[in-house]
Fold:
Amino acid sequence: MNAQPPVTPEALERQIWQLMKTGRLEQAAAACDQLNQAFPEYGSGWNTSSRLAIALNEPVIALQAVQRALLLSPGKPEWLLQKMASLAVYGDLEAANVIADELAGHEFASGYHASTCAVTLNQLGRYADAERHFARAVELNPNNPNYRFSLASAQRYQGKMEAAARSIDKAVELNPLDCEAQLMRSSFRQCTDDDNHVASILAVMDKLDDDHPGRVQLHYALFKEFDDLGRYDDAFAQLQKGASLRRSALAYEPGAELDSMRLLEAQFDASMFANSAQGHITAEPIFIIGMPRAGTALAENILANHPVVRTTGESRHFGVELFNQCERVLGAAPANTDDLLMAAKQIDFAALGEAYCKQARPVGGEFAHFVDRQPVNFKYAGLIHLALPKAKIIVVEREPVENCFVALRTLFPGAYPYTYDLQELGEYFLAYRRLLAHWRALLPDRIHTVHYEDLVQDSKAAIERVLGACDLSYDSACLNFYTRSDTSETADPVQLRQGLRERTLGQWQHYRAHLGPLIEILEKGGVPVPD
Structure:
């Protein structure tokens, strides 16, 4: 009788990866335990355990496992990379940056590792380093369309628009069915009758099933191209189809969100603001709030180009820390928004402000202020003041119909579900306007308004007013914000890189005949609509 060949750690590891590829993560975890117990000196097994733990959203276990791997092979770049990624997921960005420094200048031998490194460096805000590693992934795997797409995204973020356009053209060439790449490609150039992608996008659409999720991106790409060509009726037809498909895929109850805004107004009345000294005293944060596509990213990048200011982008830290403080009051996680807002009246606002600053403060460098540009924080403007009475709050406003239309024409990644339906968009805008008026009445000197139109048409004077509201001296760098080596994530990075342009104003007028339901809601709500 022939003896069975001994099981090797390599064979067990291959089985684990097969389980992971097929989504059987629990079986993979059990197999990892078996591998590590049987072969504790096999470093690759511990590294694989770390990668599996990240997939299972267990960063502590991921860190412990990769540390075991590094004890066996100290300094191994691929395992240092895994530790850096685990630290980033865990939230220890300072320690992750230390490892990023250790890996500076290293060139990985596989596209996977180079791309993974780039993704983590993006999380750390090291955008130039991320671009270099995405370029390395493309160098190693030139026919991988995903690496080409990632490189294009990194180049666009760095403001290298011509290089980004070449990268995305190649990504589409390698995989025409990548609908997200098709949409990005349309964003880079002003289309003309002789230079557009309408025919090729329609050809791809013909190949997709009616329920294919990529049709949404293709409809938005066609909207952009038809809009460039001045074919406004055709453009709106595509926008309407794309927005309708997007809305149908979202589980969103608009009534619940509007009710939460009314509850905020009722709960936080004048009596809550009799003693603002209860908060955490620091002037570090500058909050930028408003409706999506009002120009909050523009204001953020103007401020972030000031020499004493850094930006955290669209931070979620205030909402997260508010939730945590409410959980302490209740002794359990709030069951719903009503429970959250009822508990919010009882929280320790100084603790909220301190915890927020600790989490939101950018890693690295010494700066007097940081910008938190999370538009939805308009809901919490009053609570922000209670938690951080010295913080600056800047609201960016835009002509209402134009603001709503620009939001409608934007395909947001996982945010703002009310922007895909004209009626829901109009009702949300009125609720936003009412809640903001409530905060302004309670805090007349604490909320400063900047108008998008002023930033575009009277830039220097408007920027001076914004800087003055933040107690910052004027710096000419703020006027040249679009030359920054990096910008924060925004729905339209191409437009942001083009600077302040008056042609961005009034474009909704081309679609006035199609915006009747929105205009009617706004006018009934007392919002004036230009002729």
